[in-house]
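Predict the holo structure. Ligand: NAI.
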Amino acid sequence: MFAARQTFNLFQKRAFSASASQASKVAVLGAAGGIGQPLSLLLKLNPRVSELALYDIRGGPGVAADLSHINTNSTVTGYSPDAAGLRECLKDSEIILIPAGVPRKPGMTRDDLFNTNASIVRDLAKAAAEAAPKAHVLVIANPVNSTVPIVSEVYKAKGVYDPKRLFGVTTLDVVRASRFISQVQKTDPAGEKVPVVGGHSGVTIVPLLSQSNHASIAGETRDALVNRIQFGGDEVVKAKDGAGSATLSMAMAGARFAESLLRAAQGEKGVIEPTFDQGIDFFASRVELGPNGVETIHPVGQVNEYEQKLLDACLVDLKKNIQKGVDFVKANP
Ligand code: NAI
């Protein structure tokens, strides 16, 4: 009880400390889903967000009505599930998060979602390119390795593509990596930073343990840890037993990424997040954010022989996933 009250007070305090000059409209597309709802809740608690715009093909206004009773300063609006509602939702947005799309069931890979999610993401990207071409777009819908290239192709076709403003959200891989390494090493995960590069599925996820606080991890311990980071999502899919994939941890990761972008937009320096980025050919790495999105893409840095093998395997799959996204938009504009 006491802890809950403290948390509440903290949010109150932060909400009042946000100034009007920090006004930011954030849109969530797929807001009534497993990720969309907790993600919207976390954004409602973020004092940097002044206006929260929620869209879903079903249930957006209900989620918005519920969240709008939370006593933080931001406004929350749920839009009607049609083209006009989507347009209004997107208009003037600074950040657009896209968790719309079906999640995995046990036994599925992220690529198995392609057929359904590719057209959902393409259509939402078209609307975003028209209504808010300057917004930062954060793609959560899987397979991220392919859905990010889909968005970029749509934006290119509309003549509004800015690689600095398009992001694939791979933050959850880094969140998992710091948690899992802390469990092995018995440390505080808050102090653990493990760079994870490449893509966001299976072997395309490449943790660089040699650049963490625990470079000496080797042998079976290392192999098990790398495997858990690469396939951590499967643990959740299996445990949910047909009811979907990671939603709560993903919401936290998505909210963290949005918060980093807002901090950078509001003038903070040195804000670094991992993201699946356009700069070096759709390869996730550590990216420094600024007011216009990507400021600096940090190099992968020194890797050991083991990690080089992981990178080689990653690139084989990643290239195929990227091409699949590009080809989809070419064949289905
Ligand atoms: P969900 O099925 O619970 O929610 C998806 C929501 O999208 C539903 O409310 C649905 O009505 C909505 N939707 C479907 N088509 C839409 C459209 N055209 N416009 C607007 N809304 C639409 O799924 P969940 O668990 O929220 O997952 C969403 C996506 O996120 C999945 O593709 C999943 O694979 C992905 N994901 C990504 C992660 C990452 O690390 N990037 C981690 C976990 C999941």
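Residues 29-30, 32-36, 55-58, 99-104, 113, 117, 120, 124, 140-142, 144, 169, 172, 200, 244-247, 250 surround NAI (CB under 6 Å). The chain has ten helices and eleven strands.
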